């Protein structure tokens, strides 16, 4: 009886997870489905799970005849630089927050929290006003600067929690063994925070990769457009080219998926380690 | 190896004072144990010697050289932490050689140093393992190995056995003592466990509330505690303490304990007639007998057999009197017995100041 109950419970549990996964992944499936549906079938076949004829014409067009390779390159540059810069800054900042007590720490933490409290829309006008005279609008470096500024506070708190989870004894032991504080940080603490850094890197990368608001407001030319802005170019006054738009979307998923594929080993470890201290 | 001089060392965090002026000289090769309850400042003192805490006032010298301003890495000391603090991403060999690699020691020298230490601590088969794959006792030994590979001026131990179970702790205690006898290194050992302090130390420094209470050999502290704190802290089961009034009018010094019970003293105490005093006697010195002269009637409340001996709790003159005896079946709960305190075993303290007065 008991084992039967257990089996039923397990099946219910798995079924619930399956439902959730199906629900979460369905839009992605739909993107894929439309990207391979020929234009003539898009409206004529009604609602079907898979078109009667699948083609890769949209992909071909997007890769060979649109500006998408350029948008991709731009997105790559922006997201990677943002992720790397934020991870480095937040590692240093998080370490300081975790290990040192210094004057004004309370206020710095407060200020960092404050930056997270406003809806981004409120900040667009002032940021444009600041960047414009500096020549940083319509440029990738301006975008990186803005993304870094918005991601550093949260990433610092994230990294701080990882450093908090590493016992102080370790670097004290290293310092007694003959290391300077920086050597102890580099040789002992940093290797142990790699999962945390991977988590931060992944988090910031995706945030920057999918950001639309600032990219749309700060960039006006095609040369510096990122891929989310580029997607909008498929929307014209009279029609939306869904096939190409979805094909571009599928392509845009690839780097993000690859990125997570490579760091997922650290990511799971990192996120759980940060959650449960010690 | 080197001596360590601690001169009027103080520590304060803002207005909170942790150490109120500690003076201590540790001889070359001596094993000194700092013992005291949690928060007494013993770990803080050790960390100040290591250079992990700033010194608010006073001076620390290692090998005659002032180290107040030196970084931990320049003090040439080794430390074993309570958590072992092994580097999780390095193997046992990596952990043990880290300090030598930082000093750019030649490869052959490193290899011979760590293999020597590994042999001494029976770690040789474990050299390629990560700390995660070691048991508590093995981790402890790696931590010791990391300390001994580079023959530092002094070893500092911060409650190194607290995380081990009782059996292993006893075993490692023996290993640490043996190691010290082999190496003859100056060692400072912090613990709150008075058994560890008694068994390991050449000299014990008993601390409480940031003040050194007594410095002396283990048996010194046990046999002649300088004050109520040391008397109560050292020894298990703890010393019996009874408050009473000191009487010396007719040339026969004694203590009145209440309910008409009076205990005679061996000699006069350094206090005035009528003063409030605390009489102390260790449980193993309380004599439990049936009908001795000068004895006090008592009723057994509780019997705790330890296997090794028996702890009897008896109610006499309204107080709980603990007695320890190697004899089994001396008395059962509810028995009426008599207890007596041999005069030569009695400790006398001033109740207000806590100092020893006889």
Number of strands of chain B: 20
The overall number of domains of chain A is: 2
List the secondary-structure elements of chain B in sequence, H or E: EEEHEEEHHHEHEHEEHHEEEEEEEEEE
Q: What proportion of the residues of chain A is helical, as a percent range?
A: over 70%
Order of helices and strands of chain A: HHHHHHHHHHHH
Got a strand count of chain A?
Answer: 0
Strand order of the largest sheet of chain B: 6-7-8-3-9-10
Tell me what the structure shows:
The complex is a heterodimer of chains A (278) and B (358). Chain A is mainly α. Chain A has helices spanning 2-35, 39-42, 57-65, 68-99, 105-115, 120-131, 140-164, 168-177, 181-209, 213-218, 227-231, 242-275. Chain A contains twelve helices and no strands. The two termini of chain A are 41 Å apart. Chain B has helices at 42-50, 92-102, 107-120, 136-148, 166-183, 194-200, 218-223, 228-233; strands spanning 4-13, 16-26, 31-35, 57-62, 65-66, 77-80, 154-158, 186-191, 203-208, 211-216, 240-247, 254-258, 261-264, 276-281, 287-289, 296-305, 310-316, 319-325, 336-340, 347-350. In chain B, a hairpin with a 4-residue loop joins strand 16 (296-305) and strand 17 (310-316). Chain B has 358 residues and is of the alpha+beta class. The interface between A and B is medium-sized, with 16 and 22 residues.
Keywords, separated by commas or semicolons:
A: 278 residues; mainly alpha; MetI-like fold; 2 domains; B: 358 residues; alpha+beta; 6-stranded mixed sheet; 8 helices
């Amino acid at each position: 009886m008991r084992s039967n109950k257990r089996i039923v419970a397990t099946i219910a549990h798995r079924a619930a997870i399956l439902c959730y996964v199906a629900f979460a992944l369905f839009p992605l499936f739909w993107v894929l489905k439309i990207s391979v549906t020929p234009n003539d079938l898009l409206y004529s076949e009604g609602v079907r799970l898979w078109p009667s004829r699948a083609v890769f014409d949209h992909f071909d067009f997007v890769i060979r005849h649109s500006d998408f390779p350029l948008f991709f390159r731009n997105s790559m540059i922006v997201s990677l630089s943002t992720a790397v810069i934020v991870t480095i800054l937040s590692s240093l900042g998080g370490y300081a927050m975790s290990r040192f007590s210094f004057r004004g720490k309370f206020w710095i933490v407060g200020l960092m929290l404050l930056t997270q409290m406003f809806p981004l829309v409120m900040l667009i006008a002032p940021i444009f006003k600041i960047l414009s005279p500096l020549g940083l609008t319509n440029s990738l470096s301006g975008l990186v600067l803005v993304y870094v500024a918005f991601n550093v506070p949260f990433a610092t708190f994230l990294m701080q929690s990882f450093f908090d989870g590493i016992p102080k004894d370790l670097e004290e032991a290293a310092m007694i063994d003959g290391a300077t504080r920086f050597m102890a940080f580099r040789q002992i603490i940093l290797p142990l925070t790699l999962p945390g850094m991977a988590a931060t890197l992944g988090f910031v990368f995706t945030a920057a990769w999918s950001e639309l608001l600032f990219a749309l407001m700060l960039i006006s030319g095609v040369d510096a457009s990122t891929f989310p802005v580029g997607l909008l170019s498929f929307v014209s006054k009279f029609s939306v080219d869904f096939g190409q738009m979805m094909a571009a979307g599928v392509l845009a998923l690839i780097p993000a998926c690859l990125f997570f594929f490579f760091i997922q080993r650290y990511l799971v470890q990192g996120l759980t380690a940060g959650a449960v201290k010690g | 190896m080197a001596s360590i001089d601690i001169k009027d060392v103080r520590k304060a965090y803002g207005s909170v004072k942790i150490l109120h002026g500690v003076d201590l000289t540790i001889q070359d090769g001596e094993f000194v144990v700092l013992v005291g309850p949690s928060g007494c400042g013993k770990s803080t003192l050790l960390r100040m010697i290591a250079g992990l805490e700033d010194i608010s006032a006073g001076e620390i010298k290692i090998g005659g050289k002032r180290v107040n301003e030196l970084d931990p890495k320049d003090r040439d000391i080794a430390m074993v932490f309570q958590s072992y603090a092994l580097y999780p991403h390095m193997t046992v060999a990596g952990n043990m050689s880290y300090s030598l690699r930082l000093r750019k020691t030649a490869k052959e020298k490193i290899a011979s140093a760590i293999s020597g230490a590994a042999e001494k601590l029976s770690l040789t088969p474990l050299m390629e393992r990560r700390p995660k794959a070691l048991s508590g006792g093995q981790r402890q030994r790696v931590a010791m190995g990391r300390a001994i590979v580079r023959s530092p001026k002094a070893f500092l131990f911060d409650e190194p056995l607290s995380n081990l179970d009782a059996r292993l702790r006893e075993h490692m205690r023996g290993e640490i003592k043996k190691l010290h006898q082999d190496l003859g290194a100056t060692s400072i050992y912090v613990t709150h466990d008075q058994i560890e302090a008694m068994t390991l130390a050449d000299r014990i420094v008993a601390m409480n509330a940031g003040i050194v209470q007594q410095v002396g050999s283990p048996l010194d502290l046990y046999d002649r505690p300088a004050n109520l704190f040391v008397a109560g802290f050292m020894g298990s089961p703890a010393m019996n303490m009874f408050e009473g009034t000191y009487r010396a009018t007719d040339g026969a010094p004694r203590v009145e304990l209440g309910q008409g019970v009076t205990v005679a003293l061996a000699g006069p105490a350094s206090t005035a007639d009528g003063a409030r005093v605390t009489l102390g006697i260790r449980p193993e010195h309380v004599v439990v007998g049936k009908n001795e002269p000068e004895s006090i009637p008592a009723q057994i409340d509780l019997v705790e057999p330890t296997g090794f001996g028996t702890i009897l709790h008896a109610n006499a003159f309204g107080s709980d009197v603990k007695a320890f005896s190697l004899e089994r079946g001396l008395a059962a709960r509810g028995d009426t017995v008599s207890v007596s305190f041999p005069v030569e075993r009695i400790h006398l303290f001033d109740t207000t100041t806590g100092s020893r007065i006889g």
